[in-house]
Amino acid sequence: MSESPDTRSLVSASSQLNLMEIDTIDDKEFDIPQVDTPPTLESILNEPEDEDEPFILEDTCLLNTENIDAHSCETSSLASSDSGDRTHLKRKRKTVELNATVHGSVLRHSILKGISAQIVSAADKVDAGLPTAVTVSGVIVVGTSHGLALVFGKDLNQALRLCLGSTATGAEYGAVSALSINHDCTRLLCGFAKGQITMWDLANGKLLRTITDAHPPGTAILHVKFTDDPTLAVCNDSGGSVFELAFRRLMGMRTCESRCLFSGSKGEVCNVEPLLTAPDLKDHPITQYSLLAMASLTKILVIGLKPSLKVWMTFPYGKTDPTSVPQLAWQFVPVQKVVNPILAFCRGDTIHFLLVKKDETGTIHVIKQRQLQLNCDIISLSWINSRTLVVMDSGEKLRVVDRPSQEELETLDMAEALVGEKACYQSVCSYAGQMVLLGTKSAHIMTLRNWRERVDCLLKQERFVEALSLAWSFHEGTAKAVLGLFGDPAKRKGVVADKMLEILFQYVERSVKKCPEHGKIQVMEQHFQDMVPVVVDYCLLLQRTDLLFNQLYTRLVENCVARGVFLESLEPYIVSERLGCVTAPVMRDLLTHLQDNNMMDSVENCLIHLDITSLDIQQVVQMCWDNQLYDAMIYVFNSGMNDYINPMEKLFQVISPPLREGKALTDEQVVMGNKLLVYISCSLAGRAYPLGDIPEDLVSQVKNQVFEFLTRLHSAEAGQKEELYPYIRTLLHFDTREFLNVLALVSQVWETQQEIPQKTTTTPQRTTSRTPPTQGEVSTSLQTHLVSQHTFQDFKNDKQALEYQQRIVDILLKVMVENSDFTPSQVGCLFTFLARQLAKPDNTLFVNRKLFDQCCGCAVPQVLEFLCSPDDDSRHTERQQVLLELLQVGGVVQFDEGRLLGLAEKAEFYQICEFLYEQKHLYDKIMDCYLRDPLRKEEIFNYIHNLLSMPGYSSEEKQCVWDKALLHIAELVTLDPAKSADLVAMHFPEEVRPIITKLHDDHLVFQFLRCLLDPSATSREGPHPQALLRVSPDLHELHMGLLCRFTPRQLTDFLKVSQDYRLEEAIQITEQYQLHEATAYLLEKKGDSHGAFQVLLKTLKDKLSALTSEKEGAEKRSEEEGEREREEESPLQRVEESLGDIIALCHRSSQSLNQEQRGVLWFPLLEAMMSPQKLLKGPDARHTSEALKELTMKVLNSMSSFIPLPAIIQRILQDPVYGKGKLAEIQGLILGMLETFNYEQTLLETTTSLLNHDLHWSLSHLRAAVSRGLHPRQDHCNICLQQYKRRHDSPEEIIIFSCGHLYHCQCLQRKGSGHVGHRLLQAWSCYKCTSSQGGRGGDRVTTETGRGRSTSLAQTKVMSREAGEDGKKVFAETTLDPQQSQSWDQLRCLYRGPSRLAILSEITHCHGNEKAGLLNPSQPGTASIFHNENFQLKLSPPPSVEE
Hints:
single chain, alpha+beta, 8-stranded antiparallel sheet, 5-stranded antiparallel sheet, 51 helices
């Protein structure tokens, strides 16, 4: 290596940080909250390091640098032996998908053999000891355990240049623990285990300095680092302190001044890392600050050493593994063509990144970037370039990580190299894109492989698929850790493409040579099936089909199996249109191979997607015809010869003879006929068949040719007996309905051309089914080809299109009228077609009256009967719609309406009936049509509402409909109760009772009344929702009775929302049906809370009795009863529900009762819950007994708020269940009640203390405020300008305001700055302040309370009189006037937010229901904090107010 240290310092920015090659990145992602006012170093040092409260900096910007610095320079590695991983050769190769991510071998691991040998030799010969530290720059320096520093060259020989120090020095100083070389490789700093630091001249090996007093003695040097300034270094000792070392040379004497940057007493710093700058980045604006990163066990600090010491940022780790050590690493990273430093730091498994940048204003910002999470404990962290980090974990594995994508590129196990072994700070170092790792007996170097090496590494292992995938990622710029690609992107792609072509040749050659010559044919096919698709894919991606079909195909043809696999693999690429052109030899081989293997479907798929102009058209057509490939045949005729008529002639020649002779068609002929229909429809619509579009210049010509062919009088080979229009006649006989659909759809396409001149649609799918499609399938196919397609060219002009349509209609009438072969059903299809054409609003067709009359005279009866046939259920809706359209356009005026109405009713054509009835204004009969039509029953409600609401109908017509609706009201209610209720509420409010009498079914009445009266029963989503109808109370009571019968659970909800019932009658109804919850609600509403309690108590006792009896007779129940019981609620659940209701009642009632009345409520409830427990005995009843005890505790918790605790305990001890036996049985109950007592007592004491404290604090501050002395600014009145001391004629009252202005009382009165306030006290305002604010003082006293400078905080009346010689001012009186009250309010507002008493009350209210959990004795093992008598609520003190 001949490069000087300067050229190898870091990495050349022209290569590593090539700004012109960086893709644009949105700089908005860095706009996060910036550190505008960073803390001082002193505040950081004095800050308590609390790991329990981590500082979380929100990651509001994610640094997206996918394409930053994708092309780094290739650094030369030291001469060594490559230790590539060969184990992959033994693994079974798997096919890799094209989209799979392949990184290959990113790092080259080499052993520094020369240095390793000399380290071992020095340990043996000169007792140098084991290696302890390493650093790299222009040379490699290794420190040893016996105090030596071995300096090796970086040339090929790795010769030992210098041996600095001696074993005697080592015995005195200890092992070398830290090393550092300055940027020009002239000085070396060595730190020792016993705390000394030495500086050496690397040019001659001379010792320049020995520093022994730079830090506290007895602590080892962990780190010593040069900064960019050769006279400045930093060191970090084992005590956790950091010191700055400034080297000076005065009068020939070399000195070193030490300054403490961080004291270990404030937190131990474990790692330091100064920001070092490459020579070509010396002008970077950040370098002037000489940044230093320090890592303690709890936080990261970034400080600037120049021009003065300043802390720029602190960042805590949060929760980390206490055994892990912090790591630091700086790197300059280009972003938006601007290079800025990024600090990577970690402790544990998470790597954080901090970006340091200087904006245009000169402000420095430290911005947190997206963090990186790894599943390992990191013990070493290094940058190898601006995108890639290399970390070593505690498992001695080296991991290569791409920072922008956070993707792990490679993992190497370094355990065998003896590098790991808890390798820490000084055993791993990085420099110029290389990493040096120091083992116990060897030195290793890791460098990035360039892109060719990574690809070749995979090729050596014969992993061709992965090599191609990796090379393609280089080609597309998506690869990670790229090295060695420079220049223009097009040139880079060209270089990679050449390499990929070379790999493809090697892959094909290797596959052909290693193909098994013997064995099963399936094995050989699988061998090539793994290779051929990969080769084809990459040739298509590289757009090198010439290479694919010439050189590569020529090589594969030598093997017959490879040739077959290659040809068969082309089909999916052809069908997906990735491969649109194939050379003529390959095309011939492809067709021959597929035909020989009877793969005719594949032949057809390929033909219709390829350019077949280079093939023998006649040969291909004959092959398609012989193999029934009709789609391919039509495509070849159309694309190869622009012939659109011959395919139709060939198909007509096959299907016409059997249809003419009346024979049944074979399946093949049916397929041909259906394809013919679709082909005709596509051609007339401007579409190519089976897919694509006809060339624009041929569209009009093709339409004319196809239309003229169909309308020919005779075929080309017509016989004497051939009838007119043979082609149309054949299609009508083949499938009349579908052929007429084709004509109708084509006509629709012609008409829509004026509206939608151009639209882009998807290409319809091709049908290649061998089975004959059904009529529905043909219709769907036609619609797919026609209705969805609007991009077409019309005929020569619109007039010609209309002429063609008219001609078709005339031909259809002539053919079907003059021929008796057509059935009424077929004539009906024609009539349907004509009706649809005539019914169009812009119809211009003219029907020949003579032919039409002839058609109507002979066929209308049959056609009408066909349309109205009740025996034919097929196409019922379509037949009705056709007849309706005819009626609407007046096309059948000669029909007898009576006969038509009869046929329509018989055929259930209710829309036809409605049309005829509407013409006669028989609206009541239209309602019958809606009721009898199953598809339109729901529309009758809208019809009735609209007719009764809208104008335009006579009163007689509305009355007729009104009567009809009432007549069928039962049927309407059955149809939809909610809509019926809406209809009644709007139009029949007076007919509710008659309607109910007509509803003979009670359940129907119930549904009707529920929708009419109960707002919770329906969401009122009828056609015209209205408010609830107000009816008499007896109807509400009727509804209540029905609710009791059908849905008793909803009765209580109805009683709560309804207010129109009578209480006495409602109570009788609920008692009749024994609905106790509803009865209790009504009694409570009536005011009889005790009666409601007795009802609920009786219900609870019944359910408790059922629970105990159910336990006693559990064994006697049958399986059917058990199944029914499981479907319903369990007895215990019913008890819990009932208990909840009665407790809620007691809570509501106890608020207004005295103590004795409360006991009458609560104690019977407690008695009812405790008495059943004595009946539950035995192990089977244990679960129920525990459940009842929990429910009893719930009652106790609830009643403890209203009943004294001693009374409750006395009642419990008197109960036989708890009164007998040992105290342990009731220990839980008593402890729970004591918890409640302790809690409430503590709460009361704390609240009282808070109130007293707040009151004392407020009054003391108020007293201090109102008694504070005021100092006037001047000694004269601000109105009369006379000094108050000079007036001796009479006593004078002086008024001083808090703003400092002084006035005579009389002067203020004359100016009107005083007024009588509350309680007849004189209120004053400063005249000067109020005047300067634009108003008189007297007018602004009440409006300027918030301005402390114009209103006196404390008004003091001062008597200025001659009192002897002293002339003292005497306070006449001190009062609390309204202004002082205002000041008091301002003081109170200092404590913003609710009072603490309000907070405590809110907490008590919100958690009232949680007291059951506190008092629950079911968990005796859990200790409660309330058992402690010294328990106190810890609340924050009130805010202090600065005096």
